[in-house]
Design goal:
Blueprint lengths: L1 E6 L4 E7 L5 H4 L11 E6 L5 E3 L6 E5 L2 E6 L5 E6 L3 E7 L9 E7 L3 E6 L36 E11 L2 E11 L2 E9 L11 E2 L14 E21 L2 E18 L4 E4 L4 E14 L2 E10 L3 E11 L1
Parallel strand pairs: 3-9, 14-17
Antiparallel strand pairs: 1-10, 2-9, 3-6, 4-7, 5-6, 7-8, 11-12, 11-20, 12-13, 13-15, 15-16, 16-17, 16-18, 18-19, 19-20
Organism: Bacteroides faecalis
Protein name: PEGA domain-containing protein
């Protein structure tokens, strides 16, 4: 397919001005036939332009993106020609040009518009696309889902201790697991308390219904046990977490000088027990650490050691 070009208009002068900060004409002067320094015009535009003035052109120099022409002092007009775009004749400067001064002349190139040449019809060959049908449709192979290998089942037996201030309770934990498993946890301090006949006091020792506390001995009894069940989960490598819920009771009894026993309601608790902790397996040995609470009032630190069967 061939194209030619139409020119919407001839070229024109966009701007002419003096460059007061440009000292090219001063440090690189060119002299005319009268041995006078010339004025320098830096013309920004196509390098195919040809220039002439009534006083002549002393020197022309093609630079990057522009053309330098040296003209005699007193030049007042210039004629600009182009082999394709025509002639701009006798463009007049605002004032006569001075020696050793630099000026700038910016030219606008004409706008070109492509014109399409249509070839003769007999040279055109029209081809229609061909459609090919496959004899059978290809089906995608079924996607294979990789299954996690099933881990061998194992049993867990652990002995642990729950610590609260100076109180210690012992326990045993029995579990079964693969990647996930279950366990049963029993703990107690293996103590009993005296019968209180339903009498209670608060943490200040004041019995219910009284305003004045009785005199107490320094004897204090406490009993604690809990039964919990929960789940075991292997998180990564030999690291496990466990969580469980159950029932727990903690009873604290104070003895008065009269030999009566009162249950301290503020330091005693019973109800839902919960625990959360982590385990680390090193070969056949298992170590655990966690926390146990009864009704959120009584908290214990639980540590244990056991074996994996």
């Amino acid at each position: 397919m061939a194209f030619s070009h139409l020119y919407a208009q001839q070229f024109s002068v966009q701007r002419f001005r003096q460059l007061p900060n440009d000292i090219s004409a001063y440090i690189q002067p060119e002299k005319d036939l009268n041995d006078e320094a010339c004025a320098l015009i830096k013309i920004v535009g196509n390098l195919d332009f040809v220039f002439s003035t009534p006083l002549g052109i002393v020197k022309r120099k093609n630079d990057v993106g522009e053309t330098w022409i040296y003209v005699p002092r007193g030049t007042v007009q210039i004629t600009i020609k182009h082999p394709q775009w025509g002639v701009l004749r006798d463009y007049r400067f605002p004032s006569p040009l001075e020696s050793r001064l630099t000026y700038e002349l910016v030219l606008n190139s004409p706008i070109t518009m492509p014109r399409r040449k249509i070839p003769p019809m007999e040279n055109n060959i029209v081809e229609f696309p061909r459609i090919y049908r496959l004899p059978t449709q290809l089906t995608e192979p079924p996607k294979l889902r990789l299954k996690r290998p099933k881990e061998d089942a194992c049993y867990l037996i652990m002995l642990d201790a729950s610590i609260h201030q100076k109180e210690v309770a012992g326990g045993i934990r029995l579990g079964w697991m693969r990647r996930h498993g279950i366990y049963l946890h029993v703990l107690s301090n293996f103590r009993t308390v005296a019968d209180t006949n339903g009498m209670e006091c608060d943490k200040n020792g004041i019995p219910k219904g009284d305003d004045i506390p009785p005199y107490y001995t320094e004897k204090t009894e406490n009993s604690h046990y809990a039964l919990l069940a929960g789940g075991l989960h292997r998180v990564a490598g030999n690291f496990y977490i466990y969580e469980g819920v159950g029932y727990g009771v903690r009873t604290v009894v104070w003895e008065t000088n009269e030999g009566n026993y009162l249950r301290n309601a503020d330091y005693s608790s019973k109800g839902i027990a919960a625990e959360l902790g982590a385990m680390l397996r090193l070969q056949r040995f298992v170590f655990s650490a966690g926390a146990i609470t009864t009704e959120g009032n009584y908290w214990e630190l639980n540590i244990g050691i056991g074996i994996r069967l």
